[in-house]
Design goal:
122 residues, globular, 4 helices, 4 strands, four-stranded parallel beta sheet
Length: 122
């Protein structure tokens, strides 16, 4: 059975690895990867990618950088209009980087020894 092709838009390599696992779980295959230039690039591209989703489905993954943000507000501000049904903008709460240790890291195939532990105090 042939998998559905999808365009992937992500901030960085870690977000790409997480997204590929998610898409594979749902039987979707990455046709093209866009982004890998940080959150600002995705924010500028979201409106256009929403319209481009009339072709191939597009999966975009970003994260919150502040607990003062909320995913629905971020999505509305980035898309600036009605969301196309084939544009999947998902927001990790808080940051995808927090998944680089332990079980989520193993799920994504990332060794806990690859990245130093997060030493920030909250």
């Amino acid at each position: 059975m042939r998998k559905t092709m999808t365009i992937l838009a992500v901030e960085d390599e870690l977000s790409e690895a997480v997204s590929r696992k998610i898409l594979d779980h749902y039987g979707l295959e990455v046709h093209q990867v866009m982004g890998l230039r940080g959150k600002g690039y995705l924010e500028k591209s979201a409106h256009g990618l929403n319209h481009a989703a009339k072709g191939l489905p597009i999966f975009m993954l970003t994260d919150l950088d502040s607990p003062n943000q909320c995913p629905p507000g971020l999505i509305r501000s980035w898309i600036k209009g009605e969301k196309h049904q084939r544009f999947f903008l998902r927001v990790a709460v808080m940051e995808v980087e927090s998944m680089n240790h332990g079980r989520p890291g193993r799920f994504c195939g990332i060794s806990v020894h690859t990245h130093p532990p997060d030493t920030r105090k909250y």
